[in-house]
Design goal:
Length: 200
Amino acid sequence: MAEVKEKQSERREQIIEAAIESLKEVGYAGTSIREIARRGGFNSALISYYFGGLHKLLLAALDHSSEIRMRRYTQAVEEASGLEELMQVARRIYREDVEGGHITIFSELIAASLAHRELGPELIARAEPWLDFVEGAIRKAAGDSSLLQILPPREIAYGILCFYLGVNLMTQLDPDTSRIEAFFDRANQFAPVVAPLFST
């Protein structure tokens, strides 16, 4: 029984990896059950068997990518000390998301949700853990600062997440990342000026 479950888990992961590869390389428009099966070298019927359909598989692919990133980024935030190091973590997150293709995966599903409205609530629900993540980083930077009484961390987190999603979409339109890198440069220069405010 354990061996069967292990094989099923391996097959499921194989299907998810093929879906991720397809979204990265040909986007949502080119991603179909047949295309994913071709890339993974398995029977297309297995997608319905394990996931029940294309959209459920693509959401599972997003979940898989997000879980890996969440573990890594949570550790990075926990190890950061102060606002300046958190800004460096934010920059690293952006770069890794671009290079690893997660931005492409999420952007493609956002685009797909315009035509397939049922995807919208699913994507919003998957944004909640990231809101928690950003809020936690804000609270870590602020500590016991009185700023939290004026600027609610959850609202700031929502604004940051919206900004980041906007940056993601712009990266899809314009692969030249020099402007966003310039933004991070300015933010890093500004961080030492702002940091004392978080200790009051």
